[in-house]
Amino acid sequence: MALVTMKRLFDHAMKEKYTVGAYNVFNLDTLVAVLQAAEKEDSPVIVQLSMGSRKYQPYFETFVRCVKLYAEAVHVPVGLNHDHCKTVENAKEAIDYGIPSVMFDGSHLPFEENVASTREIVRYAHECGAWVEAELGKMAGFEDEVFAESTQFTDPHQAAEFIRLTGCDSLAVSVGTSHGGVAGDSSLKLHFDVLEAIRSAIPESYPLVLHGAASVPEELVRAINAQGAHVPQMRNCTEADISASAAYGVVKANMDVDNHLCYSAAIRQKLGEITEKYDPRMYLKPAREAFETEVRHKMKNVSQSSGKNWLKENAE
Known about the structure:
The protein is α/β, with parallel strands linked by helices. It has a single domain, classed as Aldolase class I (TIM Barrel, Alpha-Beta Barrel), CATH 3.20.20. Helices cover 47% and strands 15% of the residues. The protein is built from 13 helices and ten strands. The chain has helices at residues 6-16, 28-41, 51-56, 60-71, 88-96, 111-127, 156-166, 192-201, 218-225, 239-244, 257-273, 281-301, 310-315; strands at residues 20-24, 45-49, 78-85, 101-104, 131-136, 141-143, 146-148, 170-173, 208-210, 250-254. The longest helix is centred in the last third of the chain and has 21 residues, at 281-301.
């Protein structure tokens, strides 16, 4: 099946009150892991690329075509988004590469500059038939080499004004999650009062997005550290909080860190077991399977998207 639009993905998610998980991929193995997870869970999914994957992939435009080709091989709804474009030029380049949805992160800019840059991207994107996700409010943590020390919640009335002024198609809001988690002794809390106020201030069917929706559970950090890593334990919102956000019109949740923890832990473990072997497939396959298993867990237990394959419903 060819890629589907964000509008189709989000309309169904809004109606059925679930979120579509968005998972960053950087090579064919991680792409296959996400697509196989979606097929096995009969779930819609969003494949995400990033500025980091652009740096990692020397033939990035060809990789974009590969993503589209692989999406044709599966029988679930698949969307494609470029996450966290840092500049107007980044976003326009992504659209020119053939990516049908781009996310521009102007959250670090003053409100007026964020509006102006987002509006320029929206104008260009809509002329090309592309979707634009924007961001308002600051989240603590690192994202593609950009660091925010503290969280600044999205102002509900400012969100309504931002949507009106820019015409962006969906909005990532800051309501308590963080990029990669923050140091602390207990989980962060999703501020449902802020989320509800945002929901009340904007059009009823307008799609909202959560970034930093990976929960960074202790067992995943322990698992990778048991293989010789020294990853600090970070804290983020719980899976239960992320799941509950769907009731407020959150239709997309970016979940990345947990997948990377599983992928890297599996490689470390397998390399320790096959010290006399040198075939990369012997450790890359378990890593891909670990990535897939974690994505399946998110679909079943966090986004609640398992079994929501509306392509199958339409066929019937």
